[in-house]
Amino acid sequence: MAPLALGEPVPVSDRRGPLLVGIVNITEDAFSDGGRHLDAGAAVRHALRPRAQGAVTVEPGPAASTPDSARVPAQQKCARLTPLLDRLAVEHIPSSVDSFLPETQRFAVSRGVSYLNDSQGFPHPEVYEQLAAARCRRVVVHSAQRLGPAPRVPTDPAEVRDGILEFLTERPTALQAAGVARDRLVVDPGPGHFLGSNPETSFAVLGGVRLLKERFGLPVMISVSRKSFLRSVTGREIAESGPGTTAAEIRATLDGADYVRTHDVGAPHAALTVLRTAEQAPVPHAR
What is the pLDDT of residues 216-249, one digit of tens each? Predict the structure, then answer.
């Protein structure tokens, strides 16, 4: 792949199948691998692995967003991000930053990231002007609670669906009104704790990718990797959640997801390679 200019997102229309986004947690309390990659050297090695496995974009996350996660100041987030973004830029690897703090988002834009992923869907209008001037794409994640950590409460799937449609109408409209180009927007319905503690709601949303694409005409990102709603039906622990995760990711892909954001890029990459090969294989005619 030819190197991209800093801040230039990968064109969605110039490929076949979803783009894989490699999650790189650099936090103490990420639910799946917290505390493992806080050292700068370990974090850099961890960040290069998804690219080798088939990721087009690598996304460092300097703070967790689960209900029990600690609040991390913007200055500390930026310090965690700096060595990773520096190395990814040297390697010409497009980067994304997962953060809902305006200060961290401004920092990420200044470092030339290709994507900003906001788990609260960009609720702070004061940063819109700078976002409009940036070339990166904005991933608008639906947030049922709008602000703050995800709650641990059960929700009604129909009510959440209506809330997602309302949220993903209003928030991209506000960003476009502030000057953010429509072709720089990606939407994410936010399956997991952000939708509610009961798995039924997240499964209903996972099955609604086609609806989102038809309703909004925007690229859709799905991030279900290792999440508890999948483990609730498989009975597996986090360390054994790979097969369930891959199944959910492939389901979303078959429904038209444009991005799959995942911890283990190698698994969906291999699964998608097999699917494409099977689709292209000639079928012998009956004699």
Answer: 999 999 999 999 999 999 999 888 999 999 999 9
What is the DSSP annotation of 171-233? HHHHHHHTT--GGGEEEE---STTT-SSHHHHHHHHTTHHHHHHHH-S-BEE--TT-HHHHHH
Identify whether the C-beta of residue 194 lies closer than 8 Å to the C-beta of residue 144.
yes
Contact between 193 and 152 (Cβ < 8 Å): yes
Tell me, what's the pLDDT at 148?
Answer: 65
Q: 3-state secondary structure string, 1-65?
A: CCCCCCCCCCCHHHCCCCEEEEEEECCCCCCCCCCCCCCHHHHHHHHHHHHHHCCCEEEEECCCC
Burial of 261 (C-beta count, 10 Å sphere; 0-12/13-18/19+): buried
For residue 97, what is the enclosing H or E element?
Answer: strand 96-98
Residue 9's pLDDT is 58
- The answer to whether the beta carbons of residues 157 and 197 sit under 8 Å apart is no
Question: First and final CA of the chain: distance in angstroms?
Answer: 44
Q: Is the pLDDT of residue 30 over 60?
A: no
Q: Count other C-beta atoms under 10 Å from residue 240's C-beta.
A: 12
Q: What phi, psi does 24 have (nearest 5°)?
A: -130, 100
The residues facing 98 across adjacent strands are 117
Using CA atoms, how far apart are residues 40 and 42, in angstroms rounded to an integer? 6
- The SS3 call for residue 115 is strand
